[in-house]
Design brief:
mainly beta, globular
């Protein structure tokens, strides 16, 4: 089990997100008011607090949301989760859709540090069941659900 450390949003793509007191996850959409929300597979991004802390220990001066992450999570090795894994909060349910992403334009963090952790440590999810998410909420790992194929 892990816990939510921070909830971050931005109203524009391509900029750092800012921490907010809570977020509302909308089913099959993402965090209300976030620029990356919508009907696609990368509705909510997550990054582990441990990965951010290790990056800071190498000299990075980063704040919550600087990598474009929506949720910072403590206690779960997010990058080790297989696609399809489900993450359950008190009210919400997320499903892992992608591990990492290519950094096409090399963000400011990359230009300063020579690397960015989001491409290898960040994960993306879609919202299966919406609800409120707040710092301090617990997050449980649930196994992926098998795909049920229709038989004719």
């Amino acid at each position: 089990m892990g816990s939510i450390v921070a909830v971050c949003v931005s109203t524009k793509k391509g900029v750092a997100k800012k921490p907010v007191g809570q977020g509302v996850l909308a089913t099959q959409h993402g965090i209300e008011g976030d620029a990356h929300a919508g009907p696609w597979h990368r509705q909510v991004s997550l990054l582990s607090w441990q990965a951010i802390t290790a990056f800071k220990a190498r000299g990075a001066k980063v704040a919550d949301g600087c990598f474009g992450e929506n949720l910072i999570v403590d206690g779960i090795d997010l990058a080790a989760l297989p696609v399809g894994t489900r993450l359950a909060g008190r009210e919400f349910l997320l499903e892992v859709t992608q591990i990492g992403k290519e950094c096409h334009s090399h963000c400011q963090i990359f230009h300063t540090m020579g690397e960015c952790i989001m491409p290898t440590q960040g994960i993306f999810t879609r919202v299966l069941r919406g609800g409120t998410v707040r710092p301090g909420d617990s997050l449980d790992i649930l196994p992926a659900q098998p795909v049920v194929e229709a038989h004719s």
